[in-house]
Structure to design on (132 residues):
């Protein structure tokens, strides 16, 4: 046995566990926030996956933008996403509708959504799925 054989074995085990983790779907959401200089418009540009779980982070950003100025025009752009769960989008829209002020609702949040909604790719022959 060579001195580095045990190290090589540990590396192989780590590679195997990394392969097992890679076969699972990783739904991450990234958001770029663009604010106009006058502060009257905020654009939230999302990439990755919008799911029932990740929509909460996007909702938090919408609420932060509206807390500064509830009359700000907030646009949520989902055209760059890899995957949009209909349930996640519906939950986000419902929460935004619930948050709107009744007396003076300000500007409605605009959603720019791809048609059809992008779906998470199914596993290929090797059981691998696209990680976002």
């Amino acid at each position: 046995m060579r001195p580095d054989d045990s190290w090589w074995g540990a590396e192989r085990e780590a590679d195997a566990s990394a392969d097992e983790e890679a076969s699972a779907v990783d739904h991450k959401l990234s958001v770029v926030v663009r604010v106009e200089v006058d502060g009257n418009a905020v654009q939230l540009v999302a990439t990755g996956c919008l799911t029932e779980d990740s929509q909460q982070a996007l909702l938090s950003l919408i609420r932060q933008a509206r807390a500064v100025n509830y009359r700000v025009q907030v646009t949520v752009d989902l055209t760059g996403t890899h995957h949009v769960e209909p349930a996640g989008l519906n939950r986000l829209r419902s929460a935004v509708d619930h948050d709107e002020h009744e007396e003076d609702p300000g500007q409605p949040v605009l959603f720019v959504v791809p048609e059809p909604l992008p779906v998470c790719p199914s596993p290929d022959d090797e059981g691998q799925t696209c990680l976002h």
Summary: Residues 26-112 form a domain with the Transcription Regulator spoIIAA fold (CATH 3.30.750.24).
